[in-house]
Amino acid sequence: MAEKNDLMDKIVSLCKRRGFVFPGSEIYGGMANSWDYGPLGVELKNNIKQAWWSRFVKQRDDMVGIDAALIMNPKVWQASGHLQNFSDPLVECKKCHMRYRQDKLPEKCEGCGGKEFSEAKMFNLMFQTYIGPAQEQANVAYFRPETAQAMFVDFKNVLDTSRKQLPFGIAQQGKAFRNEITPGNFIFRTREFEQMEIEYFIKPPQNDEDWNNVFEMWRGEMKAWMTEVLGLKWEHVHELEVPKDELAHYSKRTIDFEYHFPFGVSELYGLAYRTDFDLKNHMESSKQDIRYTDPQSGEKFIPHCIEPTWGVDRSVLAVLCEAYDDSNPENIILHLPAKLAPYTVAVFPLLKNKEQLVGKAREVYKDLQKHFNVAWDDRGNVGKRYYSQDEIGTPFCVTVDFDTVEKDDCVTVRNRDTKEQPRIKISELADYIKKSLQ
Predict the structure, then answer these.
(1) 335: helix, coil or strand?
(2) Residues 248 and 369 occupy one common structural domain
(3) Whose CA is closest to 141, among 126, 124, 128?
(4) 382-392 and 2-18 are packed helices; what angle lies between their axes, rounded to 10 degrees?
(5) Residue 320 to residue 47: CA distance in whole angstroms
(6) What does the pLDDT look like over 345-384, one tens digit per residue?
(7) Which has the closest alpha carbon to 190: 23, 19, 392?
(8) Nearest of 107, 174, 116 to residue 143 by alpha carbon
């Protein structure tokens, strides 16, 4: 366990040192479990989100996307069951009143060392706010604890405007907020986080096989995402079939995809069969007809729903954990999938005080910027630059030397993982890198 915790400490240190993730509000002493994505972290995060949107929305004919408001009518959360059911059992230290989740209760209070705790009470995880200047009960609203409900509330609008036929899905990326009792483990569990979710609508199943076929299709899609896009080794992933007595109030079946993080095996993604729970409740609560009309038979019905859900921040953390390699302490490497790396390529002049090298390197740099996110690096010697780019996961480094400007108009392209260094014509450089990314 000490080695695992040490690995987590190393990853957190690298993230701070190289600009992936910073402590939130740090100049004011920080804020517990608040994190800001730095210049490299936001690129990695955006690359994951863009890859997800491209794979599951742009490349599918049965999917459309939305981007809904963070604060919705409170009646949404009443109809969805969140106001009644979205809570955790909470215990309190009788000495200093620090609170803990019942399933995460330490032997001694971490605040004062006390050993006496109160009986568990339910604690709602919704973040409450007020609409308007007066803090009155009539003005109470909530920051959304998940992105899912907007896709149910907007179902009829999406159906009418997109004219999709079942089966089809609605996708959304965005922030969610949960007043977690015990956040922690870096960006794994925070009170403010991002989700990528899909609500995939199907006809009311005639038997379990009907919905289970779609469920298994999404199970395969999620596995492919983890291995093909994020680069996670499947042996580092564990599928947990959630027991029936632990299912969420809306679910008939749920699988949690758990990842072997340095701090232990914990949930990365989830896949749930939500039946017609949400659409049915919103139809009854709103008194609006949001049924689907079958274009062939004219039959009206409430569709059922399969929900695959991905955590953005946990995706970032899993990718960093999987990619981190300090087997050579002199040369730490992040083996990030090339398409996710903050920079695809870095460009160096062999010497920074030789005008002809710097000028040519700048030309190469500007040309590659038309195709990729590119870093410029002229600090120290070339070897140190390689190490620096390895540590942030840059898959390719391009060096402009004297042969480039005096002989062959070629550059040296160094591969992060294989360490191969072929000479490539500048005119063919962008295509060479593009082919290497496939």
Answers:
(1) coil
(2) no
(3) 128
(4) 110
(5) 13
(6) 999 999 998 999 999 999 999 999 999 999 999 998 999 9
(7) 23
(8) 174
Distance of CA 169 to the CA centre of its chain: 19
Cα 361 to Cα 364: distance, rounded to the nearest angstrom: 5
What the block records as the tokens of 251 is: 């679910």
Which tokens go with 327?
A: 């087997």
Residues 6+ apart with CB under 8 A from 389: 343, 346, 375, 377, 397, 416
Copy the structure tokens of residue 402: 């004297």
Read off the pTM. 0.90
Domain with 349 in it: what CATH number?
Answer: 3.40.50.800
* DSSP codes joined into one string, 14-82: HHHHHTSEEETTGGGT--TT-EEE-HHHHHHHHHHHHHHHIIIIIT-TTEEE----SEE-HHHHHHHTH
Tell me, yes or no, whether 144 lies in a domain: yes
Q: Which two tokens stand for residue 110?
A: 């971490």
Query: CB–CB of 290/283 below 8 Å?
Result: yes
Tell me the three state secondary structure of residue 14: helix
Q: Which domain holds residue 178?
A: 2-73+135-322
* Predicted pLDDT of residue 102: 74
Phi, psi at residue 331, to the nearest 5°?
Answer: -145, 80
Orientation of helix 39-53 relative to helix 312-323, angle to 10°: 110
Size of the chain in residues: 438
Strands 292-293 and 396-400: unpaired
Residues pairing with 374 in the sheet = 345
